[in-house]
């Protein structure tokens, strides 16, 4: 059997604007999944906040458990013996119109954007990794390519400095590393005063990054 066809995303900078909005909770993530259910069948724990009353009303209480490290009212939904979401029925989400925010904002395109292979960190998520490898971004401008390079630079930096950030901020999974890289990618850009365009930095001071990430977390800018 041949490899699955590539999937075109479009302009990287446009996608970045959309995914940053999803991360901040300002919008959902409009992923053209095309029938793919990899994220629903990869041993995922789904976080559900106490304000997601519509979702909670459509989930059996016996499937929900207190979310570790989060305030009372935050819960997680686990998976069945196959690693599948229990709401996945006949390869379709049985509560799609009422699905959790976590599902609405999930976007496997973060992995190729950050050049993070989720299947290496977690073999249970090899299906997500395969789907992620199919995405192809467009770079109509040098700025969009520089932005992509900055995201990947941030992800490499986080992988190279695992003990730099304090607990609660430091990424503990491939997903968290890719998301944080997107959130802080601007720290890996510099302004070229002559060209008027952003270019990636080869060297970033770890202490400066740590201080800025902590500041953004305290200000509620970084999740």
Describe this structure in words.
The protein has 223 residues and is of the alpha+beta class. It has two domains: 1-30 and 109-120 and 134-223, no CATH class; 32-106, no CATH class. Helix content is 36%, strand content 13%. The chain has nine helices and nine strands. The chain has helices at 12-24, 53-57, 101-105, 110-114, 118-121, 126-132, 142-160, 174-183, 206-218, and strands at 7-11, 46-48, 64-66, 75-77, 88-89, 92-93, 135-138, 189-192, 197-200. It has a three-stranded antiparallel β-sheet with strand order 2-4-3. Strands 1-7 form a two-stranded parallel ribbon. Strand 5 and strand 6 (92-93) form a beta hairpin. Helix 7 crosses helix 8. The N and C termini lie far apart (41 Å).
């Amino acid at each position: 059997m041949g490899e699955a066809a590539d999937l075109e995303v479009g302009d990287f900078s446009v996608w970045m604007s959309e995914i940053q909005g999803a991360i901040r909770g300002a919008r959902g993530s409009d992923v053209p999944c095309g029938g793919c259910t990899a994220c629903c069948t990869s041993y995922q724990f789904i976080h559900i906040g106490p304000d997601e009353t519509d979702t909670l009303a459509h989930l059996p209480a016996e499937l929900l458990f207190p979310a570790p490290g989060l305030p009372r009212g935050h819960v997680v939904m686990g998976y069945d013996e196959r690693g599948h979401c229990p709401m996945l029925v006949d390869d379709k989400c049985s509560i799609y119109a009422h699905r959790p925010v976590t599902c609405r904002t999930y976007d496997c395109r973060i992995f190729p954007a950050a050049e993070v292979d989720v299947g290496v960190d977690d073999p249970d998520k090899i299906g997500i990794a395969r789907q992620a490898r199919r995405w192809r971004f467009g770079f109509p401008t040098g700025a969009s390519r520089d932005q992509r390079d900055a995201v990947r630079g941030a992800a490499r930096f986080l992988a190279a400095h695992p003990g730099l950030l304090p607990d609660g901020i430091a990424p503990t999974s491939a997903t968290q590393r890719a998301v944080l890289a997107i959130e802080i990618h601007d720290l890996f850009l510099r302004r070229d005063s002559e060209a008027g365009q952003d270019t990636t930095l080869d060297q970033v001071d770890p202490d400066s990054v740590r201080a800025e990430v902590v500041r953004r977390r305290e200000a509620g800018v970084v999740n």
